[in-house]
């Protein structure tokens, strides 16, 4: 991974987690959307690994005006703007026909 600065604290970092403030980075720029990747994550108390291909990536901006009543008149107010980012992966069988592998923590292998 190329060297960059933590967007949270500005410290120079070379991994997926800032050693100073603990901020974690998900750098999806390394993904080739046409080729399978291996993803390791914590899921329901277990560390799992799976082979997957990116199915979709979206950023959604949602503005929901909220109605309320003031002096018997309905007024619409903008209470918040919610912006979400979602990346969806299709999980594929690995070479052994396995979809999800549970990994022991710190076993050092994918
Ligand atoms: Zn940091």
Question: Can you characterise this structure?
Answer:
With 110 residues, the chain is an all-beta fold. The chain folds into two domains: 1-30, no CATH class; 31-110, no CATH class. 0% of the residues lie in helices and 54% in strands. It has no helices and six strands. The protein has strands spanning 4-5, 12-13, 37-43, 46-70, 73-92, 101-103. The strands form two sheets. Strands 3, 4, 5 and 6 form a four-stranded antiparallel beta sheet that branches. Strands 1-2 form a two-stranded antiparallel sheet. The two termini are 18 Å apart. The model has no long low-confidence stretch (mean pLDDT 83). Residues 6, 8-9, 11, 18, 20-21, 23 line the site of zinc ion (ZN).
Keywords:
110 residues; mainly beta; four-stranded antiparallel sheet; two-stranded antiparallel ribbon; 6 strands; 0% helix; binds zinc ion
Q: Please work out how many helical segments DSSP would assign.
A: 0
Estimated structural class: mainly beta
* DSSP strand content: over 45%
Ions and ligands: zinc ion
The average pLDDT value, as a whole number, equals 83
Summarize the main sheet: 4 strands, antiparallel
**Poorly predicted spans:** none
Q: How much helical structure, as a percent, in the residues?
A: under 10%
